[in-house]
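re the bet — no i am not wrong, look at it urself. input seq straight from the record:
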Amino acid sequence: MVGFRLGTLFFFFTLAASPTFSSVARRDFFVESDHGIRLFVREVSQSVNPSPKEVRSHDWDSSHVPIIFDANVAGKSRKLIGNANRNGFYCVLDRVTGEFLAGQPYIKQTRAKGLDAKGRPQVIPGTDPTDEGVLVYPNLNGGTIWFSLSYSPLTGLLYVPAREIGGIYFKREAEYKAGTMFGGGGENELPADQIFGAVRALDATTGNRRWEFKLHTPATAGILSTAGGLVFSGSDEGNFFALDSATGKPLWEFQTGGSVGANPSRSRSTATNVSPSPPIAFSTSSACSSLRGKGLTHHFFHGLP
C-alpha cells in the first residue's frame, strides 16, 4: 500500500496480495485485494477502482504515490487527484468526492477499448492469459511502475516516465498453498528491438499528450519538475538530462556511467559551496549491475546556475 495524508484526508493506492495470471483462481481468494484509490475522512470512506477484478490477471495494481493538484474543470475550480496507472490509463478524480472526471491511455494498451463512466476499463474479449500465450500491451510492469510522476502548476502538465513494452501472457495449472507465492502463469517480454520509453507530458485535467521525449529503452527513473521551467530525469543507458517543461526540448545531458534508476530530488536549502541555487541530487547503479542485481550506487549533486 502506498499513499499520503492531506489534512484529514488520506489517499491510498492498494496493491495485489500476490501476482497471478489465472483470474478464475484469483477470484476466490483475492476478492478483498482491490486495486485503486481509497479516500478516508474520519468515518467516511470512498473507493475508486481503476483496475477491477477482471483486469487482475495481468497484475496491474497501483504501486505509485498519486499526484494532487487544483485546477479548473468545465469552468469550475476542483480539488483533483491524478495517476498514470500500470494498466496504461491516466485517470483524474475529484479528490473530495471520488468522482471520476477524465481518463485515457498514455501508452499503447490493447487490453481495453476504453473507460466507462466510472473510469473502469472496458475489457476486450480474448486478452486474458491463455495456455498458448496472448500478446497484450503493456507488459507485466505496466505503462509505468514505481517511478515518481511530477506535476508543474506553472504548465498544468503531469510528467510521466513511460514504458512502451508488450508481453505474451500465459497461464498454467498451479496449486494454491497458503502463505506461498501463487503465480498460475507468467509472461515473456517482447525483445529489446521492439520496445522503447519516453518522458511524456500530459494535460493533468484530461490526459491529453502535449509532448514527449523518447528514450531508447523503457523508463527506469522518476521525474522532477522545477519552478524554473525544467524537467529532470534519467535513462537506463546512464544519461541524466534536463528538458524544457513547456516544450520537452532537451537542454542539458550528463553521462553518469551507470543506469539511472532513482528519483531525482532537490533540496529547499541553498548549498552555496555548490551553486547559488539548490543542487539537483540523483543516484545511479554501477555500469556492471542491473535493476535486480547487486552493484555499487553512485550519488551525484549538480548545481544549477
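see?? The first strand starts at residue 2 and ends at 6. told u. also The radius of gyration is 20 Å. so pay up
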